Amino acid sequence: MGVVIKLGLRIRFFLYSNTVIAVTMILVTVFGMMYLRRIRYESIVGHGRSIVEAMAIPIRDASRSDSDEQGAESEIISLYISEIMDRNLDFMRYVVVTNADGVVTNSSREELVGRHFERALQRGRNADEPLAAENLTEHGEDLLEVRTSLGAPGEFVGTLAVGYSLEPVEQQVREIASRAALVALVLMLGNSIMTALYVETLIRPILNLNETMKKAGEGNLTVRAPTRRGDEVAELADVFNRMMDELVASREREEQQRAQLAHTEKMAAVGTLAAGVAHEVNNPLAGVLASIENLRDNPDDDEMRDRYLQLIADGLKRIERTVANLLNFARTREIKLEPTSINHNLKHVVELVAYQLRAGSVEVTWDLDSNPAVVEADHFQMEQLFLNLVLNALDAMREGGTLYLRTRVRGGKVIAEVRDTGHGIPAEIRDRIFDPFFTTREVGEGTGLGLAVSGSIVAAHGGTVELETSVGRGTTFRIIMAAMAGEWDKGETA
Length: 494
Fold this sequence. Notes:
This protein has three domains: 9-175, PAS domain (Beta-Lactamase, 2-Layer Sandwich); 224-331, Signal transduction histidine kinase, dimerisation/phosphotransfer (DHp) domain (Helix Hairpins), CATH 1.10.287.130; 334-492, Histidine kinase-like ATPase, C-terminal domain (Heat Shock Protein 90), CATH 3.30.565.10. Helix content is 55%, strand content 17%. The protein has ten helices and twelve strands.
């Protein structure tokens, strides 16, 4: 896996600008060295040829002398060669004079006298040009050897060869390269200083805009980018500020629309609630009124009086339950925390709805943890919680089914499950089942507060509710709360 290195804008500016300078200086130096080397080489070649042509005249004359004068002339040639070498010691390395047979007769190197000089012999016999230059390497040194034939045209009496060192050329090239490197360093140093001096002016607006955008991305819609006139950064800042203004305006319009929608939904919920409450109250109220009228018509019938009084009591209790359910949801009830057994709550709830279970052909299956499932909670609110869940399960199994009640104590948590085998909850309404006043029942069959009240009870006790449902297979409500520390017997908690 590769490593990603994040470089700041300043660092990248330094790197890019200095890289451009370095590459430019390298290219200039390389091509300059090539050009200089060629010019200096041609200069040495021209200079060497001039010297060889000048030297060849006296040496040629001396080589044509009679045999009686050869010794004296040879001495003169040697002295001449020594004089020339003394005057050109900085770049001239050797002088070699051969006869027509290629034997060295005179040389600045005494060890060569009397030996064959094959290069000179080959040049003198086969060359079409009187002068020749050849690059050589001797003892690790690059040399230029200039050779010319001795004698008149059509006459070959010997060869003159002079070796010149190319080291001065290379030395000069190296000096130029060193100077170029020094210039590059000075330029890069100057660029760094300039960047340090002007980076705030050039880059600071970009960095400020970047910081402003970060704050906006974090949710701060009040920030605005500082603007300057006359550059692209200022134009970008203006565009960003206009975008933020439009975003704020859009948020305000969205909030207004959301408020209007919430108000509309609230009024719709109030209407639905009112219809449900009216039905829940009117039905038993009508029964109460009818019973009162019957009592007036039959004041002496004891049997009918008792029956009508019971009907009146039942109707008033039904109205009382409806009102109490609304009040429990509408107001915050003080929570009285005490050790509460979830197992006991479930058993008591089942006792309360025993008649509905039998009437609805619903079988109860128990799976309670052997460990005490004790939580610190309000006993009555816990009972209300599970009663609402059980009643919701019964409503989902109107044609009969199985109610599964399960508890587990795991990892300091008490987990209680209420599962039915009913019709399940469709996906499109799963997110709304805990909303107040939301119900899928017909008007008058419920207020839609049962699950909302259950959710608020769990939240008030610091617990969570999990939902698992499958259409046609049933629904599971899973309540998770913190287990209370301590040893408790099942029968000791309320």
